[in-house]
Here is the input.
Amino acid sequence: MIRGLLIALSTIWASAALSETLDTPGIDAPEFLEAKAAWLDGDDMVALTALAHLSRGGNTAAQLLLARIAEEPHMHRQVTGDMTRAEKIALLRQPGGLSGTSWLDAATEEAALARYLVIAKQGYTSVTRDDGSQYSPEADLAVSGLTLFGETELATEVVFKLHDGFFLDETLDLLVTYEEYLDPMVEVLKVSLEQSADAFAIMSEGGSLSAETQTEYADQRDVIAPAHRLATAGFGLEDIKSDAGLQDFIRQHAENVGAWTPLRHLCETSCPESYSDCLLAGATSMTAGRLFPFASPLQLLVSTEEYWKSARMRGDAARRMAEIGLNFDAAKGFDQCFAETVTALVR
Here is the structure.
């Protein structure tokens, strides 16, 4: 019953989103624009207090932005870290229960995008179509809706989350349907899944992978852009620490990873004399599967361009790269300038 409802909602919500503007109620309100400007300027307490006030007053845009900021500790810990639990809840969440609730819950009443964001955070299931193919109605709904609103990075993260849950056929189904609307890094995942499916089909019929087939697979992987392979954060921390060849690969290609642009800017402006080592250190700090470490909280409200150009970007980027202590400790060993710059920005 639940699965059938989700499938029906997929059509209803997509139609509703198309029939309304892609703007969110309150997005042009002067008070919201002032709060957003203060946030981009790094005036966190002023901005978050204003967003909380607007959210309580029913401004949907403020509810969406505050909900997404609350989900990203590197965007608020510099002001909430010393708060009591009650103060933090009052600032970032709507009243309700012991811990409050996400402002996303309130925003779903007015914004289709909020509903897609909620679906994206839920667990995924698998459904078999009449033709025997499998898909995940929750992931399909989330990706279709998020891409409709231009939230490419969040939609791409849904695909990887589905894959990490071992919904392999369902992930490939998503990629076949939505690849052109997702980040190009998904090519890495698609090639891997297609090769696995092909290999399984061969072996299930009693065959084995020939040397020619294995070479063909390797050639297909090799032609994938190195930047896409880096962007998937698919390298383990211990591999980076011990493999000099991998370190050189990262130094050579890290500046071409679009999602890492703020890292490149940090290294260019603060560590030009150790630029390549700074890139290696930053990349090391961003392992553990963080696909878009410097993403805007929500592209509909804050474009990537304005976020990356904002006064707060360097601080947010530094907090993001320092948030996993084990990774940052390893990163510091590759470049002292990177370590000193990030540590100073985090304070």
The CA atoms of residues 184 and 228 lie 7 Å apart. Residues 229-346 form one domain. Strands lie at 127-128, 134-135.
